[in-house]
Write a structure and sequence with these properties.
heterodimer, A: alpha+beta, six-stranded mixed β-sheet, five-stranded antiparallel β-sheet, 22 strands, B: mainly alpha, MetI-like fold, 2 domains, 2 strands, disordered N terminus
Chain lengths: 402, 331
């Protein structure tokens, strides 16, 4: 067990592309850290550099206080789980799990004992004599985990280990991974492109984009206090709504009506180089059916009326889709996020708004409905650089903060 | 084509599908007392089309393979020497007794076996090295591959002649460099030169087949092995080779069958002198030069049988996936 420190680690490929740029990251002993981002953001390259499967172009990597830049993977004492599981097809489950121990030249008895132990933890005991070809996806995944844990390495590296499983199994395995990590207390770096996995699994989440770290923090912090437009749009499902907002007379003109601004934001916007156009971000759960809001809460927000497009009843609450008039918010980050979601070429007229209303709301498709939203939970972003303007000392303060 | 005897019509389609894709496509057709299930119009038409599509290839195959094979078996059962055409008669297996009790045959057989085993073994090792190099090279990949494949692109007889000239005392550069006498006039050195020429010529082919096998080894597997603590050599022997085994066996099978029929190099280099004849040379000498159709055909049939046995051993005992068949072994 050990901590892992990345000190200005960069990866530059021979053809000049920079895959990872100056990543600084300190992973404490026993911590579970998630690297997340859209494809091509450098998360897997970063993991491979920690594993030693990719050379580090510049910067320093320390595992357990020791510089390991030039060490071969086999000398780093780490275990890796791959998306493809990478099980040896010619070996049985037992042989697969025993492989790292055999290479470490442990005696037969110890090997058998350790394999049996790991198999018990992962409920693989009855499968030990099978070959990978005769296992289901979930079983293969567990064998891959088993091969990683038998050795009690300094760290686990996991490269999208659940991505090849179907949705239901993925949720189930998520808890298995989580429990296993807590039980063993081994430092773990986990790469995924799935923000739900990132939110649910990690002690801390590292969001990457274009080879650079965007924000590092506990999941809830990233959710509540995104540092920029990219983080705000990436974390959360359904994702945050983004609307175009024009600065006018100390307030904002948006598709939801005129939004008043607090002193602090106004001061910031009065600076000479402040943008005149902003992007307003608000999460679906910060909307509510206006009928269901009590007066006390009502004062903290605004109301608007819009035609209901689609209602998705989730049982516990309702996802209601509105179309609002006005310009569509546009920024490089938003396009990138849309492209990652595979929806870059799919856009209707006006802006779409996703809201999460109480299940009691009598909202129906085709009607017009009054909806309230919470001004304290609004984020304002600078479209040129994506910075969150409502963030004050790392905390999001909403539009009304003084 | 078999028609499965199922009592109910409902099962027929599913049953038929498994039958036609499965191995036992020629299961007994009718059992006593059971009615043939009627085939739907659709399936009948499909079946007819299938036969029609196969027919041209099947006909060509019968014309160019089956007929000569059957004819030479027929010839091998006769006393038939073109020098004495009047003495032609059916003699059963007498020719086989003659050939199999003849020391020239067994010498040639031994020579052929020696050449086969040595060349295939050396080719496997060299070919694997070459394949790994071709697979791993990042810079100048095209040039490396082209250079490696040149020997295979040269006509065997042409290459054999250049080897012969190279080993001819006085004019040949290799003879001048390495030997005092005339290496192609002694048995051991002749055999060595024949094997060298064979290896030089066909290693690229081996490498090509093995490279296809290398491409089957997933990159993740090697990465996993190296994080599991394997050295480069352990990755090669414990992960790469086992995963490549089907490809290696196919390459070995191809090369063994090929090597066993060695002819052109021997023909050009020694013409079979000093007991360097292979079985193919011997058959050629009897059949074409000696005009003894009976004995020559017997040898051809024996070569055919040996090659069939080799193929059988590879496929059945070593579990080589026969080219074209895919039973999920290659995972």
């Amino acid at each position: 067990m050990a901590d892992i420190v990345l000190d200005k680690v960069s990866k530059k490929f021979p053809d000049g592309t920079v895959a990872v740029q100056d990543v600084d990251l300190e992973i404490a002993d026993g911590e579970f850290v998630i690297l997340v981002g859209p494809s091509g953001c450098g998360k897997s390259t970063t993991l491979n550099m920690i594993a030693g499967l990719e050379d580090i172009s510049s910067g320093e990597l320390r595992i357990g206080g020791q510089r390991v830049n030039d060490k071969a993977p086999r000398d780093r004492d780490i275990a890796m789980v791959f998306q493809s599981y990478a099980l040896y097809p010619n070996m049985t489950v037992r042989e697969n799990m025993a492989f790292p121990l055999r290479l470490a030249k442990l005696d037969k008895e110890t090997i058998n004992q350790k394999v049996d132990e790991a198999a018990k933890v992962l409920e693989l005991t009855s499968l030990l004599d099978r070959r990978p070809a005769n296992l289901s996806g979930g079983q293969r995944q567990r064998v891959a985990m088993g091969r990683a844990i038998v050795r009690q390495p300094k760290a686990f590296l996991m490269d999208e280990p659940l991505s090849n499983l179907d949705a239901k199994l993925r949720v189930q395995m998520r808890t298995v991974v989580s429990r296993l990590q807590k039980q063993l207390g081994t430092t773990t770096v986990y790469v995924t492109h799935d923000q739900t996995e990132a939110m649910t699994l990690g002690d801390r989440v590292v969001i990457m984009r274009g080879g650079a770290v965007q924000q590092v923090g506990p999941p809830q912090e990233l959710y509540d206090h995104p540092r920029n437009l990219f983080v705000a749009g990436f974390i959360g499902s359904p994702s945050m709504n983004f609307l175009h907002a024009a600065v006018q007379d100390g307030g904002l003109r948006t598709g939801l009506g005129d939004v008043p601004l607090g002193d602090r934001v106004r001061r910031e916007l009065e600076a000479a180089d402040a943008p005149r156009e902003l992007i307003l971000g608000i999460r679906p759960e910060h909307f509510e059916d206006a009928e269901l809001v009590d007066d006390d809460t009502r004062r903290r927000g605004l109301e608007f009326e819009a035609p209901v497009e689609i209602v998705e009843s989730m049982g516990s609450d309702k996802y209601v889709y509105f179309t609002v008039e006005g310009e569509r918010a546009s920024a490089a980050e938003l396009e990138e996020l849309a492209a990652d979601a595979g929806a870059s070429d799919f856009s209707g007229a006006g802006s779409n708004l996703v809201t999460r209303l109480s299940a009691e709301s009598p909202v129906a498709e085709g009607q017009s409905r009054r909806v309230w939203f919470n001004l304290e939970k609004i984020h304002l972003f600078d479209p040129t650089n994506g910075r969150n303007l409502t963030l004050h000392e790392g905390r999001a303060a909403g539009a009304l903060a003084d | 084509m078999s028609i499965n005897a199922t009592p109910t019509g409902a099962d027929v389609t599913a049953e038929e599908t498994t039958r036609s894709t499965g191995r036992h496509a020629t299961v007994p057709t009718q059992r006593a007392g059971r009615r043939k299930p009627p085939l739907s119009e659709n399936r009948k038409a499909e079946r007819k089309l299938g036969w029609l599509l196969c027919a041209p290839a099947a006909l060509v195959m019968v014309a160019v393979t089956a007929y000569p094979i059957i004819y030479s078996v027929w010839l091998s059962l006769q006393r038939f020497d073109l020098r004495f055409p009047d003495e032609r008669e059916f003699i059963g297996l007498e020719n086989y007794v003659t050939v199999l009790s003849n020391e020239f045959w067994w010498t040639a057989f031994g020579v052929t076996m020696l050449i086969t085993v040595v060349t295939v073994a050396v080719e496997l090792v060299l070919g694997m090295g070459l394949a790994v190099i071709m697979h791993r090279t990042l810079v100048g990949r095209g040039i490396v591959r082209t250079a490696a494949l040149i020997p295979y692109g040269i006509v065997t007889v042409v290459a054999a002649f250049s080897w012969r000239y190279a080993w001819t005392p006085g004019t040949g550069y290799l003879a001048n460099l390495f030997s005092e006498g005339a290496p192609l006039t002694e048995r051991a050195s002749s055999l060595a030169i024949i094997m060298l020429a064979e290896i030089w010529k066909t290693t690229p082919f081996m490498a090509l087949l093995l490279m296809a096998g290398l491409a089957l080894v997933p990159e993740d597997l090697l990465k996993a092995a190296s994080t599991d603590g394997a050295t480069a050599w352990q990755r090669f022997t414990k992960v790469m080779l086992p995963v490549m085994k089907p490809a290696i066996l196919v390459a070995l099978l191809f090369r063994t069958l090929d090597a066993f029929r060695v002819f052109d190099n021997i023909f050009v280099l020694t013409a079979g002198g000093n007991e360097t004849s292979s079985v193919s040379m011997l058959a050629y000498n009897n059949l074409i030069r000696g005009l003894n159709l009976g004995i020559g055909s017997t040898m051809s049939v024996l070569i055919f049988v040996t090659v069939a046995i080799i193929a059988f051993v590879f496929v059945k005992l070593f579990g080589t996936a026969a080219p074209g068949s895919d039973d999920g072994e290659r995972r």
